[in-house]
Write a structure and sequence with these properties.
Layout lengths: L4 H16 L20 E4 L8 E5 L1 H13 L6 E5 L2 E5 L2 E2 L4 E5 L3 E5 L8 E2 L15 E2 L3 E4 L2 E7 L2 E4 L3 H9 L10 E4 L2 E6 L1 E4 L6 E4 L2 E6 L2 E3 L16 E11 L5 E3 L4 H7 L3 E20 L7 E21 L7 E22 L17 E22 L6 E13 L8 E4 L1 E9 L6 E2 L11
Parallel strand pairs: 1-3, 2-4, 3-6, 4-7, 5-10, 6-11, 7-12, 10-13, 11-14, 12-15, 13-16, 14-17, 15-18, 17-19, 18-19, 19-21, 20-21, 21-22, 22-23, 23-24, 24-25, 24-26, 25-27, 27-28
Antiparallel strand pairs: 8-9
GO biological process, one term: carbohydrate metabolic process
GO molecular function: polygalacturonase activity
Subcellular location: Secreted, Cell wall
Length: 446
Amino acid sequence: MLLGFSTLALLVCFSCCWLLVLGEGETASCSNIVALGHRTDNISITEFGGVGDGRTLNTKAFREAIYRVQHLPREGGTLLYVPPGVYLTEPFNLTSHMTLYLAAGAVIMATQDSLNWPLIAPLPSYGRGRERPGGRYMSFIHGDGVQDVVITGENGTIDGQGDAWWNKWRQGTLQFTRPNLVEFVNSRDIIISNVIFKNSPFWNIHPVYCSNVVVRYVTILAPRDSPNTDGIDPDSSSNVCIEDSYISTGDDLVAVKSGWDEYGIAYGRPSSDITIRRITGSSPFAGIAIGSETSGGVENVLAEHINLYNMGIGIHIKTNTGRGGFIKNITMSHVYMEEARKGIRISGDVGDHPDDKFDANALPLVKGVTIKNVWGMKVLQAGLIQGLRNSPFTDICLYDINLHGVTGPRTPPWKCSDVSGFAHQVSPWPCSELSSNQQGSCANYS
């Protein structure tokens, strides 16, 4: 049976009610940047021959259903319903004004056969595939130049079956860059909610050159040893809202990016106005990251109410010589971390280069980073802030930070170079480069 709008509305209301009982001070939401539309037309994948037995290949069914949505448009758009079952399929493209709705117990599963996996051009802000020169494999679920698209449901699953791809990476047999699980390119007004994403071949959710994107109430899962399985990577995108989600992967949980070295500098599209709120997760890499590909610039990022467990690094802002670009007006607050190799790292020597054509004189600007109200337990090293000699990091503002650790006698709690800023009520006390006297723009954050 197809779900009518009234059922969808009840689900949305249930989600809203769940948000309201999260607790005092944690009810703020940015999800209103994209309005949830009323789909007046409902179709089911079974009408197009979809079979959820986990063996039948459903590529034709998905492509024909989406062709119907695109070429027989209905006022208000169309909902494509996926009932319970396991629907094996090759990659497919979404279209505008549609909702992909996964019922409880529905699984859209990627085939592991890469022979028929489409190849697409590299992103212009990267100049090549992120892992290999040349093109890249299209994401499993892909949208290019679309608007008003929703991926949602009753916590159904999108399964990338990534282990075959991870093994190719480990064995060095990849010919092209692995596919993301879900990617939107040059798109706007996107909502992703109430879905489980698991075992992505590469990054999980990747909005690039997009605006007005909401990702909330999602669960993202991949083994800790799965390579480069970032959770959510907003990339050269603006007005992005990431909220109320659980992420446990093999790489950064959320990483804000904007292009790679000379290609990102030339493309020149920053990531801006990004809110990350109420994220819980675990990773051997970073919880909330910016970079390292930031050549188009990153500004106006707010991350708050973050809970991290068994982490490599809690907060990581990372760039490199040759990146150019800027990282500015970043605020991270109310972060709890437990068992982390490093609490806070802001570094100018992280990440590789696409080729040998990068400009070594293209130095990044890192300015106006505020980190406050952070509590950590079992943190091996409190922090490392390593700027660049010819481009020091400035206005680094630390407030009310307690990182309780098991620092050894040979490991200083903080290590800093080429940085200036301010620290207030930070324990263990940070490096001398961060003054206890109010100065610079840090005065604006007290």
